[in-house]
């Protein structure tokens, strides 16, 4: 357990495909939740996916916090991050306090599940940016929330009024 001066360790799980307006709503909701969780900077754990994860990383930095990144697989950047989003991904990755790679070569469901479980293992609480709908694969947000519950990790679900996804499936 952390000492009085150690930052609270908070993980993020959440949807990738958020509308631009929803990204702004989520950033505001995350800022409020992080202030509620702790009166000092938070240390985050993220897989740095598009959407909720990257909003979380930027919000932590804006609030004076730090984060570590769990990269699901060695090919994650080239296989998953769209070319037009790689500069943002690279900048956020470079600002991480640590980068952990669980050992998978290929970005697939097994790698994402392993990364999500490693993320949950490293945190004291989980924030999920989730609309409540079931996912379509074993690494979906609902499965990560279920895993955290099974591990006894406290969870906060954030889905601000007016939030929308651009498409289902994440």
From TrEMBL:
It comes from the Bacteria. This is DUF1273 domain-containing protein. The lineage of its organism: Bacteria, Bacillati, Actinomycetota, Actinomycetes, Micromonosporales.
